[in-house]
Every structure is written in C-alpha cells, then in structure tokens.
C-alpha cells in the first residue's frame, strides 16, 4: 500500500488539470500561503457530503493571500453534475481522472476503484511541507488547524539568498544601461514544458520585461572576469559550491510604464531545457532609480531583497521567486544563470528536448583567472 504523508514531509510537486483553469497547473507555484487539500476521489460519494458542506461553511478562510483550498477529484461526473466547482479566490479543484496525483499522495493504491481510495484532508505550510493529515471524518479538526495556523504570529525564516555588493563598478553599470538604451530590448518570454518539449512563451500577465543579449566578445570577457574575481569566491565560501559555467549575457529592463515590468512567482529550473541551472544571479545596475521591482520569495514570507547598484543577489533556481512590479522608473539588471560541469553535461543531454525557438548556444566557462 502507498504511504500517506506525515507532518514534516515535503508535499510532492506535480502538474495537473485545474477545473476551469490551467490545463497543466504547476502545484508548486501555489506555495507562499497555507494550503488545505481534500483528497475526495469521487466527490459525489455520500461520505464526502459533510466535507463539502464544511468547506462551504468556511468559504471565507480561502482568500489566496493567507490560505487556499485544493480539492482532488477522480470522477469526471463530479464536474458534469456540478458537485465540484472553482470559486476564486481561493478554491480550486484538480481533475485527477487518471489517479496520478492521488497515487502520488498515497490516497490511491491501485486502479480507480472507490474501495482503493483513502479520502483525507491534508494541511500544508507555505513551503509545501505537511502540517497535519486528517481522516475525511475529521474535517472540523482540519479547519481548526488551518485557523490556528492563520492566527499564529508571523514567524518567517530569512530566504536562503546571498547578497554580494561590489561585483560591478558604477561605470560598468552605467555602460550596460547605455548599451541597452542604444540597442533596445526584445520582449522577454519564459520557458514552459509542453508535450515533452521546453518551449518559450510570452504572456504579459505572467511576465513583462525586455532583454538585450550582449554580443560584444570584449565586453563579455570584462563581465566574465569580474564575476570570476568578485562573485564566484563569495558563492563558494557561503554556499560551498563552485560555479564554472554561465548561461546568458543579458541586460534586462523592467519598465514602470505599461502596467509595470514584473515576473510573477516562478522557479527557474522546472523544465528539461532548464534543469541544468543551479543558481540565479541578479546584479542590479541602478538600484536607487526606481520604485518597486524588488525580489521576493513567497515561501519565506513577505520580505523583499534588493542589492545595491553593482551588487548581486544569488539564490537557488529551485526557489519560488517573484520580481515585483516596477511602479516608477526603469529597473536594469544583469541576469545570468550559473551552473557547473555536471550541469553542462545535463544541458547537452537535454538539448533534444528544446523546441527550435528555445534552442540556445553552448556557454563558456567563467572561472579562469583573467585580469579584471
């Protein structure tokens, strides 16, 4: 029999169709708030009626800010008969018609029979770790546990990020900004897995940014030398990891006009074409010349992060993070990804999974001792 999750377990990540929503909803992007899950199986089963009534009675708890609800339904008739429905904000249902999500969480052992299903409640914290598991008959205890977590004092651990000042000098920062202004930027997309391929998509609701890719080999060498001399030793000292490769030589611009440049909560290594990425690097080029635009890490509370001009914020590509909307001015940044030789081999292996529009060129090493 599959094992049910226990308090302290990390909830598995998955993609699944959401009722009246994304056909491939990435569950891990819901982190950053409390999540109450109901593994219902066939939600029309009479045993589920009290649980659904309890959910309706406490509708106000689920606002997508402090808490949200995800139900898991395995029976297509639940949708056809209106037994389950999306209610935004806060209430969503996964359509687990093949049982994959239920099996992943131990609610289903084999086949799709009702007798093999173990309906239950699961309460997750903002980092998607299990706070509690409750039998289907103990919904009142699950709701009480959720209410207690909402009412508990806010205690957030600092996000595991590294801030390193003085990587680029002010004159180099200004030069990169002027280069962007002279050349202009192109609309920036994001990577998504579709039908087994990593493809690039543009959606201004999710991300609004323009990028200029640096082609000048001499300038690239100057940037590489500064990273090798001023940044990589600090990463190795603080994180115990040696970067040897860089992906992207790019100046990005988040513009406060047109709704505000932003990039909603995401992770940077969740597709085959991006799995090699180890750490993200944001080097601010004009930290005091814009409002908004800071980095935040929803799994670790509301704190925001902004390095000084020429300084870097370094964080694992597996962390959920968001570039908040710029509300005034323009935010310029140099935005490479760092990886190592193991990552280089993985990248080479996964080139076959890159769609033609997303194919990128091999990247150079960054650890030789060239002068700055």
TrEMBL record:
Molecular-function GO terms, alphabetical: antioxidant activity; dioxygenase activity; iron ion binding; L-ascorbic acid binding; oxidoreductase activity, acting on paired donors, with incorporation or reduction of molecular oxygen
Xref: SMART domains: P4Hc
Keywords in alphabetical order: Dioxygenase, Iron, Metal-binding, Oxidoreductase, Vitamin C
Entry cofactors: L-ascorbate
Listed InterPro entries: AhpC/TSA, Oxoglu/Fe-dep_dioxygenase_dom, Pro_4_hyd_alph, Pro_4_hyd_alph_FE2OG_OXY, Thioredoxin-like_sf
Domain Fe2OG dioxygenase as annotated: residue spans: 245-341
Protein name, per record: PKHD-type hydroxylase YbiX
Lineage per the UniProt record: Bacteria, Pseudomonadati, Pseudomonadota, Alphaproteobacteria, Sphingomonadales
């Amino acid at each position: 029999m599959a094992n049910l999750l226990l308090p302290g377990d990390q909830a598995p990540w998955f993609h699944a169709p959401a009722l009246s929503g994304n056909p491939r909803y990435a569950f891990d992007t819901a982190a950053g708030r409390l999540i109450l899950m109901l593994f219902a199986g066939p939600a029309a089963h009479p045993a589920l009626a009290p649980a659904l009534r309890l959910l309706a009675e406490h509708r106000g708890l689920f606002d997508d800010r402090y808490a949200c609800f995800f139900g898991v339904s395995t029976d297509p008739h639940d949708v056809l008969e209106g037994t389950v429905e999306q209610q935004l904000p806060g209430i969503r249902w996964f359509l687990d018609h093949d049982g994959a999500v239920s099996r992943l969480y131990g609610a289903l052992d084999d086949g799709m029979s009702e007798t093999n299903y173990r309906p239950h409640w699961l309460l997750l914290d903002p980092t998607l770790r299990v706070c509690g598991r409750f039998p289907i008959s103990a919904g009142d205890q699950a709701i009480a546990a959720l209410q207690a977590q909402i009412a508990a004092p806010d205690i957030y651990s600092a996000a595991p990020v590294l801030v390193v000042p003085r990587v680029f000098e002010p004159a180099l920062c200004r030069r990169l900004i002027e280069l962007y202004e002279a050349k202009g930027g192109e609309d920036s997309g994001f990577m998504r897995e579709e039908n087994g391929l990593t493809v690039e998509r543009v959606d201004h609701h999710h991300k609004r940014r323009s990028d200029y890719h640096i082609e000048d080999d001499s300038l690239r060498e100057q940037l590489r030398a500064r990273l090798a001399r001023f940044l990589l030793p600090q990463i190795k000292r603080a994180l115990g990891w040696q970067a040897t490769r860089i992906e992207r030589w790019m100046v990005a611009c988040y513009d406060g006009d047109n709704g505000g440049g932003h990039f909603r909560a995401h992770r940077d290594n969740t597709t085959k074409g991006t799995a090699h990425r180890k750490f993200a690097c944001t080097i601010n080029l004009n930290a005091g010349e814009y409002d908004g635009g800071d980095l935040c890490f929803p799994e670790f509370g509301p704190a925001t992060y902004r390095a000084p001009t020429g300084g870097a914020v370094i964080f694992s590509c597996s962390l959920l993070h968001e570039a908040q909307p710029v509300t005034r001015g323009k935010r310029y940044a140099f935005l490479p990804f760092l990886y190592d030789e193991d990552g280089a081999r993985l990248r080479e292996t996964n080139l076959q999974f890159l769609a033609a529009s997303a194919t990128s060129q091999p990247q150079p090493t960054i650890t030789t001792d060239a002068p700055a």
